[in-house]
Amino acid sequence: MAEYRPGTPDQAAFLAELLDRRLLLQSGVPGVYGRGGAFEDVCGRVGDMVTRAGTPEQPEQLRFPPVLPRRDLETVGYLKSFPHLAGSIFAFAGDEGQAAEQYERACKHEDWSEFQAMTELVLTPAACYPVYPEIASRGTLAPGGVTVDAGSAYVFRNEPSGDPARMQMFHQREIVRIGEPETVVSWRELWRERASALLRGIGLDAQFALATDPFFGRAGRMLAASQREQELKFEVVVPIAGPEPTAVASFNYHQDHFTAAYGIEFANGAPVHTACLGFGVERITLALFRAHGLDSQAWPAEVRSRLWAA
Amino acid sequence: MNTEIRELIAAHARLAVDVDTLADDSSLYEAGMTSHATVNLMLALEGSFDIEFPDSMLKRSVFESVSTIAAALTELQQ
User: Which band of pLDDT confidence, cut at 50, 70 and 90, is reported for residue A309?
Assistant: First the structure.
């Protein structure tokens, strides 16, 4: 089981306030919360704000469930980069006697994992993952490529924490650009500016930072160094709670990682690259409650008008 | 040493071209070596040469070419 990381005192205090106000609802497992109405309202408004900002590119709207075929997780090499974060779905496989034994152990809250077998599904770890096989299934890519708005999807990371901003199950609001390398790079640059303006517009102290993914182990340190040297990942960080500001959005240039895995190409054989941007919906919502107070009705008029616009 | 390095590159770097067509100082990245392939090569070098790259060497420039890899291995074997 992944090791629980306690929150800092101010993270623990902020979480206690959120639970006390029933903005977040305790589940009994760290990092997994229900959402109260006022919290969910803001989450929805944050998502809508991103949708409005992305309208100029007229992205294709696609939606996927929060589970992913296990084969796709395998194809993109997730288990090499992030074996520690993945969540795989297992289900009962056995006869009546084993079902009875499983039930008996479960009633006593003992280990019943031996009656479980791996299914074809895993929990989706990143909202853009289902997009690539879908695009690959359509055949060669038309010149100019495609922009996909994958919506606001639940994703899972196996990292129980006492920091309310480090949830195990949370929403990523993702948009994906698939196209010529230069097209993809300039799209990412465009969104860097756009995202920064969006977040500052709702009163958040948004700063840019060069970033790396939390790759696993020594191989991961190599991948992280490579990612940093090539400036493949940027984040927008905002103060929430804790000693460091928290990443609330990321801008990721994958080069040909996904297109090579799925064989996505142009008809003339020119290389196709991808980039995605992901907004952490709950983190932005938490940052808003932290910056403007726990009563969203009392937030500054300018912030409210930008979120509750139209 | 360079021959053994080249064999490991051929096996693990998944280059777009034959490694024998590259000079010792040619860029492996320009020849198509991805970040993930670099990790595979790094682990293969550690196994074959019985060394462990310190964190300070886990960066792209160390694995840039046959020459840079040979220089790093020589330093580690001293």
Answer: confident
Closest CA relative to residue A75, chosen from A268, A264, A295, A266 = A264
Chain B residues whose CB is inside 8 A of the A256 CB are: 34
Rounded to an integer, what distance in angstroms lies between the CA atom of residue B48 and that of residue B11?
A: 12
A257 with B34: Cβ contact below 8 A = yes
Res. A162: pLDDT tops 80: yes
Judging contacts by C-beta atoms under 8 Å, the chain A residues touching residue B38 are 222, 226
Residues on chain A touching B60 (C-beta within 8 angstroms): 225-226, 229-230
Write A33-42 long-range contacts (CB < 8 A, 24+).
Answer: A33/A164, A33/A167, A38/A296, A39/A285, A39/A289, A41/A296, A42/A285, A42/A288, A42/A289, A42/A296, A42/A307
- Sign of the Cα pseudo-torsion (A183, A189, A192, A193, in order): negative
pLDDT at B36: 86
DSSP B37-54: HHHHHHHHHHHHHT----
Higher pLDDT, A140 or A218: A140
Predicted structure pTM score: 0.92
Taking CB atoms and an 8 Å limit, are A219 and B35 in contact across chains? Answer: no
B55, B38, B44: which is closest to A230 by C-alpha?
Answer: B38
Tell which residue, A251, A244, A240, has the closest CA to residue A283: A240
- Complex ipTM value: 0.83
- Of the residues B14, B27, B36, B63, the best mutation for testing chain A's interface (the one with the most A CB atoms within 10 Å of its CB) is B36
Count of A–B CB contacts within 8 Å?
A: 36
Contact residues, chain B, for A77 at CB < 8 Å: 36
